[in-house]
């Protein structure tokens, strides 16, 4: 059953108020719901029946205006309760039983460890009670939670706490009231024996808000960073967007079993523990950054998502794209803006570009879906954020703020569309965005082919830009987009020139110029130049597009050294490395050119007192194997790995002294520090260590082992462990095995750290990795019922280890298909996500294509597949 945007109809009934009573138990929970319904004046009259969504519910009773209904007056379907011929306004009471302990899908009410928790987005509420489970039905919820006081001393729901009592039988009842009407997907309850880490925040208008992070008692020493991030995010939203928090309390709960990163339930954010728990000895700098970003993201949803929500799920990017943009900007303000931009673009290119070029390609606002859970994608989130970013850049900070103020004022308390958002930008910005809107509707990554010419007599430089977007499934014609295209022109010394358009009488100050592309072909002529400039294109990555321009190696090296735009300095280095690596793939006995090594050597020399070490570490990071594969017509799995190893080893050998200098200058101080500068030092040092360990001498191996054993912080421990595990035993003996064993013994009881242990082995390039991964499936600490563990072992192998996953005997594909078929009946969302690497089968050689297709076809033949898996597999095979 395909759902189409064009079929949207307003709901026939509205639910103004819902009073829910839960009798909580792990095995069995009873839910009593009292709903105040009325006919929606804005909707057409239907057949007179009321349709309530509901799945996996056991209905015990249904009453309308206090009259228990006889079976003839309603009908129970697999996914709905239909109540026949209802009045225009009435109260409906239902009583249902649900079984949280049997809920392995982790949607609705489920068990994690000893606690009960919920996940309702997108359509999980219908597994809790019968309801109109769609985001344009906004309801005032009040909740009573009754549970055994010993096992569930903490009882949480959305909104404000309005009383607790202990019943005579020893059970406890907690009451919560949420004054803000909300869609059911934002509903949450949590019950458990949890400990709180607490703090307070005073809002701009002076309201004191208690903040609590609830965790399992052994984790209270791992919440500092999350709490710090939360307070910083609350302040930032006040300052940057004028948005204050609006309830009497803000609660966060960390749970071990969670399908995604986290969830913005009103006043009760529920998190994957991975995005809350961190101590310097358990979490890497990347983990810390992830926590900061996700805590902020969920907090920011309070305005962009909760106060203003989505009319339907096609509008998902209304809240997700905007909120990702907000969390990206927040994180940029907390550390290095330039490095943050590089990381975000690297991720966009690694995940969203391939999605846009594959069988699941869809617009930021999709037109149709089979299973909405499949559309929480890099396109909706990350490309959606780029689309908001482009509007922010087109308007400039002041007008963009006017636009968001207007949006918050106009739509507070409503369920709206991306179109409503754009119209606010248009009105407040006094700008025409009619062509820009295509970014929401058109899938695929635009390609900009750039060519130039210089007239030495007139000093005129002409840049010609052709844009085209490759076709995507279901969209065979593509229209030109409005593209903000930031350009700089460099002189021979590397300085920015004034970018003066022909016809302009005065030259602007030297620097970046924002051009607006609208036509399929645009020509810009710049004047006042003494010599041919070197163009710096798409500065700051001003639009989510692919730029092609025939740079020479010398020009790329020049830009890498001189471009005033930090992003483009990094991008030039990347392009240079990609180009060289592809040459090494094509020509296996080609030596690494001296000029390349010299350029890297020059970059290393920049590591002095005032250098940005984090940026330098980014420059030194070679493009990943999968990104290199994306640049080839047919992915050469083995050639890419060989070439990348060859280049890394050449850098390690030929720049040994410079790399050792980096280690010396960037030693870890005794006092641990999470400042951007300290993180930059660690990143740079570990990048250097990685190269040195590609061609290791005994002293370097010893250093690496010492760093692992010192155990000073998880960033350094993992970096050293990875080097030891991946190194050739010829160089390191059994140091890799020993380190793995030591790591396991130290961290066996810390699930998040243990995930790293599983992941590292799954990503190893050693030839026996698949066997090892298969062995780890039998490890007592492995389970298919914890999504983090599944991602750590199976996901890491399939996505993070292209060399071994794509082994030409097809064993990796068979392995993954087997796991997906095991997982699908348990947890379809996780099963479906694991399919991703197989959706890309068309990118490989014929042998691999046939092998992957055979596995996809095998999956598709299985009876009773979930919608989630069915949709991805059938679309991948081109059958939907
Ligand atoms: N809204 C949540 C977040 O951004 C993600 C929820 C994902 N849920 C799902 N069923 N895929 O931040
Ligand atoms: Zn979100």
Automatic annotation (TrEMBL):
Please tell me whether the keyword Zinc is annotated for this protein.
Answer: yes
**Cited Pfam families:** DUF3458, DUF3458_C, Peptidase_M1, Peptidase_M1_N
Record domain Peptidase M1 membrane alanine aminopeptidase: where: 226-439
Which molecular function GO terms apply here? aminopeptidase activity
Provide the alphabetized UniProt keywords: Aminopeptidase, Hydrolase, Metal-binding, Metalloprotease, Protease, Zinc
Q: Which cofactor does it need?
A: Zn(2+)
* Domain Peptidase M1 alanyl aminopeptidase C-terminal, chain residue ranges per copy: 553-877
Question: What is this enzyme's catalytic activity, as reactions?
Answer: Release of an N-terminal amino acid, Xaa-|-Yaa- from a peptide, amide or arylamide. Xaa is preferably Ala, but may be most amino acids including Pro (slow action). When a terminal hydrophobic residue is followed by a prolyl residue, the two may be released as an intact Xaa-Pro dipeptide
Checking InterPro entries in the record gives: Aminopeptidase_N-like_N (IPR045357), Aminopeptidase_N-like_N_sf (IPR042097), PepN_Ig-like_sf (IPR038438), Peptidase_M1 (IPR001930), Peptidase_M1_dom (IPR014782), Peptidase_M1_pepN (IPR012779), Peptidase_M1_pepN_C (IPR024601), Peptidase_M1_pepN_C_sf (IPR037144)
UniProt EC number: 3.4.11.2
Record domain Peptidase M1 alanyl aminopeptidase Ig-like fold: where: 444-549
Where does the Aminopeptidase N-like N-terminal domain start and stop, copy by copy? 114-186
Give the family per the record: Belongs to the peptidase M1 family.
Protein name per the record: Aminopeptidase N
